[in-house]
Amino acid sequence: MSDVSMSEEEVAKRLDETYMVRVLSVSPDGKPHIAPLWFVVLDGDKL
User: Fold this and answer.
1) CA pair distance 31, 12, nearest whole angstrom
2) Ranges of each domain in the chain
């Protein structure tokens, strides 16, 4: 399996551009699961 992680700079840029991300996982039987995740930024801290 290849590494699809983001660098710290990529994460910071993405979180500065939006208030929602999608969290994706795959179960052992291959079924995908996606869920929205909302967040806010206060004083530079991601909550």
Assistant:
1) 29
2) 8-46
Query: Do 6 and 15 touch, CB atoms closer than 8 A?
Result: no
* pLDDT, tens only, 13-43: 887 888 888 999 999 999 999 999 988 777 7
Q: Quote the pLDDT of residue 19.
A: 82
- Whether the CB-CB separation of 23 and 35 falls below 8 Å is answered with yes
Cβ atoms 40, 47 nearer than 8 A: yes
Closest by Cα among 5, 44, 7, 4 to 16 = 44
